[in-house]
Amino acid sequence: MNASLRILLVDDDTVYLERLARSLRGMGCEVVTAETIGGATARAEEFKPQAAVLDLRLGAASGLDCLRALIKMEPRLRILMLTGYGSISTAMEAVREGAWDYLTKPADAEQILSALLSDPRQKEAQATSFQPPSLERLEWEHIQRVLTDHGGNITQTAEA
């Protein structure tokens, strides 16, 4: 695989999705996007991606369901899970179910492409040196989640 791979991006955050797609296209990748599991499977069927980047939270749906559907369609698909809100245990579950790797949000295009192109042996070496996120990072992720849950309303977020 090289930097010109075909990538399916799946995230319900439209702004992040489009920014990431634009960045990956600028790095030479072919990219299609979807915001739902149904959209992801339809796009994967027509686009035949070499890799997919999935958010673990797709609105009310789970990115794990999307992972399972895509793996069923193409077992060798390199799937990178993106997780926010401190859900590392869920990301690890995704890896056990066939995801190539996972990254915590906010991840940029370089980090994503590097993870997708990484050698499995490097991935195993990195796993042994895993550092849990700092308390500051977990706090930031929690605030972002609550902010998202309240539609960006800062007053409601503060009350929550």
Question: What would your notes on this structure say?
Answer:
Helix content is 52%, strand content 18%. With 160 residues, it is of the alpha/beta class. The strands form two sheets. Strands 2-1-3-6-7 form a five-stranded parallel beta sheet, with helices on both faces. Strand 4 and strand 5 form a beta hairpin. Helix 2 runs parallel beside helix 3. It starts with 5 loop residues before the first strand and ends with a helix.
Strand content: 15-25%
Strand adjacency order, main sheet: 2-1-3-6-7
User: What would the principal axes of the Cα set say about the shape?
Assistant: globular
Let me know the average pLDDT: 84
Number of helices: 8
Helix content: 40-55%
Order of helices and strands: EHEHEEEHEHEHHHH
Low-confidence segments, given as residue ranges, are none
Taking all Cα atoms into account, the compactness measure Rg is: 15 Å
N→C terminal distance? 45 Å
Major beta-sheet overview: 5 strands, parallel
Q: How many E-type strands?
A: 7
Helix/strand/pairing class, anyone? alpha/beta
Using brief descriptors, characterize the structure shown:
160 residues; alpha/beta; two-stranded antiparallel sheet
